[in-house]
Design a protein that fits this description.
By secondary structure, this protein is an alpha/beta fold. The protein has 15 helices and 15 strands.
């Protein structure tokens, strides 16, 4: 068997859509043990995808036969991608990454008849409800003998040549390993409570609300040994910055890990290890989203759970998991979210390092292993992906 994995900005390995693509590429390679693997990628940031694969996904790296990258600055982009896909149709299975980009649906439509005429399986990764709707509307495969599989977190549907498989994206084993170590040693700073927000500075993430709530908490509890860290990254900053507010109890950390990797200052594995460490050794990870995130479920949530973090989240952050997070996530209501967060900070400050605290962290880690580890996702795909 030969596999083709076609990525879109996969070198941006901190982004949810890129991680979904890379993790599934690695997992399917482990599961099917193909003779050859071909990888294509539309590169935006200039980090060589070979570097990311070889450093983070050694099993995939061992079986990769050919890597072809084209760049966003090369036009016309859709013709370039289409030509690459046509040229590698010798693969029995083709897996396409996704990103909400108009070229993707256009390209898929242009080559769909050619793909369907060739007896191959087409797998699409669609972890956005809006994009899933667009794909289903635009996908028109005329040859019923060709199978199209859409991996998604929403539903299972089998309509002959079109199959939707409900499956969560796997998380890198680094996160689960880090969680096991912390839970085994209970090695956190017990003299200071750290509430850490992780993620992009984007609308609906609740950054403003969590800062206001923490300030009110500190006014109520001035003696509390507690801090709030807003931890974010951006590929657009030239120098990494740390800002301190409110007496130093609130810190904003902005980094550019992709730039560090591009310049050789860090490896992709070192970046992921650093992120996993931040999750695992923070007292609490706070995800106070007021709107659902675009990539569903939030990869930040999955990775935090995998490290056995004590996660404070809204239903909007938990998204498709929200009915299944009792005992694993401390859920706060978005109605009057500031006051809800103040109460949560007060309560959990007192519960830090208690039996209840470690029970929630242990439950989170077990939930992650049972639902989105490589072992559990492989089991799901072997049962559904024939």
């Amino acid at each position: 068997m030969n596999l083709l994995f076609s990525g879109f900005h996969a070198e941006c390995f901190l982004e949810g859509y890129a991680r979904v693509f890379l993790e599934f590429s690695n997992l399917l390679t482990l599961m099917w043990k193909p003779d050859k693997v071909y990888v294509t990628n539309v590169n935006q940031r200039g980090v060589n995808i070979n570097l990311v694969i070889s450093d983070l996904y050694t099993n995939l790296s061992k079986r990769v036969n050919t890597v072809i990258e084209v760049y966003d600055i090369m036009y016309p982009l859709d013709e370039l991608i289409g030509a690459v896909l046509r040229g590698l149709r010798k693969a029995e299975v083709m897996m396409l990454s996704w990103k909400p980009h108009p070229s993707f649906s256009i390209i898929l439509n242009r080559i769909s008849n050619e793909i369907s005429g060739y007896n191959s399986k087409l797998i699409m990764l669609v972890y956005s409800l809006n994009y899933l709707e667009k794909v289903l509307k635009s996908l028109k495969l005329k040859d019923a003998g060709s199978e199209v599989v859409i991996l998604n977190p929403y539903c299972d549907i089998d309509r002959g040549s079109l199959k939707l498989i409900k499956v969560l994206p796997p998380v890198h084993t680094i996160f689960l390993q880090k969680g096991s170590k912390v839970l085994r040693e209970k090695s956190i700073d017990k003299g200071r409570v750290t509430f850490r927000f992780m993620g992009r500075f984007q609308g609906g993430r609740g950054i403003k609300e969590v800062i206001i709530a923490f300030k009110r908490f500190r006014i109520k509890r001035p003696e509390a040994r507690a801090e709030l860290i807003i931890d974010s990254f951006s590929e657009d900053i030239e120098t990494e910055e740390v800002f301190k507010f409110y007496g130093g109890d609130i810190r904003m950390v902005i980094t550019n890990p992709v730039k560090r990797v591009k310049e050789g200052a860090s490896s992709p594995r070192q970046v992921i290890e650093e992120i996993a460490y931040k999750y695992a050794y923070s007292s609490y990870v706070v995800l106070p989203y007021t709107k659902p995130v675009h990539v569903t479920p939030s990869l930040t949530l999955l990775e935090a759970l995998a490290t056995g973090s004590f996660v404070i989240a809204t239903k909007e952050a938990a998204s498709v998991l929200h009915r299944d997070v009792r005992g694993h996530v401390f859920v706060v209501d978005t109605r009057n979210i500031v006051e809800e967060l103040v109460k949560t900070f007060e309560y959990l400050y007192e519960e830090h390092d208690s039996n209840f605290y470690w029970r929630i962290r242990s439950n989170a880690h077990k939930y992650a292993y049972n639902n989105f580890s490589y072992v559990s996702i492989t089991k799901t795909l072997k049962a559904k992906l024939t």
